[in-house]
Design a protein that fits this description.
Helices cover 57% and strands 3% of the residues. The protein has nine helices and two strands; from the N terminus they run H-H-H-H-H-H-H-H-H-E-E. It has a two-stranded antiparallel ribbon with strand order 1-2. Keywords: Membrane, Transmembrane, Transmembrane helix.
Length: 356
Amino acid sequence: MGANGYGQVISWYICTVAAIPFVCLRMFARFRKFGKLAIDDYLILLALGCLVGDLAIQQHMWNLGLGDMSQVTPENFKSIMQMIVPGSILYVSSLWAIKFALVIFYKRLSAAGSRLSMIYNVALGGLAAMFLVIFFHILFQCYPYDKRWSTDPDYQCDPKAAQINYWITIFFNIGSDVVIMALPIAMVSRLQMKIKQKIGVASMFALGLFVIIASIIRAYYSHKNETMLTCTVSMVESAIALIIACLPALRSMIIGGTTRGDPSSYGRHYEISLTGRRRTGNFGNVSAIGSANPHASSAGRTSRSHPNGSEDSLVSEEEAIELDGRGVGIKVETTIQTLYGDLDRHSKAESSKSVV
């Protein structure tokens, strides 16, 4: 019994260990550039913690005989079934923490108050609703819990409840993955940039296809009640999702770019906006040091400052993009500090903004 599924158990550890360096590098990149973590970073750490916890539960179940359920004693069967609820919650929590982290990251790329930002707000609300539905259905689809290991035919879980949970999880999981992957790819496809750069950025998000494929495979084995294979694919799915979620931050670390350790620092950053009307860029005039044009103008909405600068993870300064005819583009904000009068006096500052 101990040798059954041994290779799959090894794959559980490989998946977990493979994800850890990517998470560590992501945190290192954020601390190195900005000196602190953002909410999406903490969600990634939460997802990794859930993955490790799920690994511990699956290892415990395998020690009890999960590899060959036909040889499991009644006592061990009860212990295995007791792990189903916490294991399922950790699996779903890990995936949804990653989904939330990705959408929050995408939202920070969008211009404040833009239609794209509103779309991501709706996506966050949808993810929250989906998670709550799945979470509470896992908790109460078979209650009291002793029905799960009962041998009494009249005191067991309703098979229909298990089917409902299966389809809810599959539909919400795969459906949300498709939306989360499609939104940034559609956003990038509308930008005016070199084809090579566009393909490179879009392909990073397209890696979400591997997560979708893993979800479909897991659904197949779960439907066939192949518990060991379902556990294995679950680990693969979570690990791939974690790695993909860390890639934008690692891309920023590799390609470099403007480092901004404080939200109030001067510099240039990029925001992606999506509006319902055609916009054209108005270029404000920036004067020489010592004076400023009070009539400098900006097009569209005033861009905001992002504390962790995660917008640098999508494009670098060398990949500046112009607005196209559909109102999609990257907003470039340049702030010039101008000092007036004697340095011993209180200085004043004005700024001018331009949109490229």
